[in-house]
Write a structure and sequence with these properties.
By secondary structure, this protein is α+β, with helices and mostly antiparallel strands. The protein contains 7 helices and 10 strands.
Length: 314
């Protein structure tokens, strides 16, 4: 399983982020609400077709409360298609029934560092006599503050992702696999799943010197083949320059053999002259083995196969 791209669709209210201060975001909402004299002001986050209110005006009769989920919200398309510069005026009747009782809604896009829309600031029914030319300056300053914190979230996710990931193949590295695989193994056992470890090692064959691929190209090719052959619940990683590991969840040991055969077939089909050795281990849920003994059993099996290969003339 390759690691996924950085997830920018996390609900900020449901996960802790040291780079984001929700109380400070609330202060900005309160500031804008006072500045515009609006009925309510909101910071809204988008994720796919849903939206969530990150912060809103704190009052008992406000239906647009902090944490409210807006499912399949038309607000998302309206904001995404509006200008990313300055405030835009939205039609309250076109952005969801929650806004239909307002006469005017101003929006200002909020974006992630890569340009994707994070969400928006909404000013609902601003007092036009109270708002001034300074209002735009202030709301732009608020946007800069919020987007600065979003940039820190983005960078922290990037660092975390790289610490779990092999640079060449984009697979999990040994640290990432060692951290994530035991959790997956423990979860699978609760459901009675059998587990198998497969270790694949790329080896040199003196008779196959014509493969026009560098070591990194071969590693990326093998990583891609492994990823294509695995199910979503399975995990894989590059644990050495020439060695890959798979944690697979199967119904029986014969299923593990079938997976190995499928891997060999795809490697032969896609890579042709790429030579591999494969070691495996299989454990039932009631074995209660931790990951390390399972991995060592597969390493021992790999070593036996290496010795067998070494005893054969090319």
């Amino acid at each position: 399983m390759l690691t996924q791209p950085i997830d920018q669709n996390i609900w900020l209210r449901e996960q802790e982020h040291s780079a984001v201060s929700i109380p400070r975001w609330q202060q900005q909402v309160d500031l804008l609400n006072d500045l515009y004299g609006s009925k309510t002001s909101l910071i809204v986050q988008f994720s796919a077709q849903d939206a969530q209110i990150v912060c809103g005006k704190r009052q008992a009769d406000n239906s647009l409360k902090t944490g409210l989920l807006l499912l399949k919200s038309p607000l998302i398309d309206a904001v995404s298609s509006s200008s990313s510069y300055g405030t835009s005026t939205l039609n309250p009747n076109e952005i969801g029934e929650q806004f239909s009782h307002y006469e005017q809604v101003l929006s200002l896009q909020l974006s992630w560092p890569d340009g994707r829309v994070f969400g928006c600031i909404l000013i609902c029914d601003p007092n036009t006599t109270q708002a001034s030319s300074a209002s735009l300056t202030v709301i732009e300053s608020v946007r800069a503050l919020l987007q600065g914190e979003l940039k820190q979230v983005y960078l922290m996710q990037q660092v975390q992702r790289l610490s779990f990931q092999d640079e060449t193949t984009q697979m999990l590295n040994p640290y990432g696999f060692g951290l994530m695989a035991p959790r997956q193994l423990s979860l699978s056992r609760r459901f009675g799943s059998h587990a198998g470890i497969i270790i694949i090692e790329m080896v040199d064959n003196p008779l196959l010197r014509t493969l026009p691929l560098s070591q990194s190209q071969k590693a990326r090719l093998l990583a891609s083949i492994i990823s294509d052959c695995l199910r979503e619940a399975d995990m894989s990683a590059r644990i050495d320059e020439n060695k890959f590991i798979i944690l697979a969840f199967v119904d029986s040991e014969s299923n593990l053999e079938t997976l190995i055969a499928r891997l060999r077939k795809q490697i032969t089909k896609a890579a042709g002259k790429l030579t591999i050795l494969v070691g495996k281990s299989f454990f039932t849920p009631d074995a209660h083995q931790s990951l390390m003994p399972m991995q060592q059993a597969a390493e021992d099996d790999l070593e036996l196969r290496r010795q067998s290969l070494a005893s054969k003339p090319y």
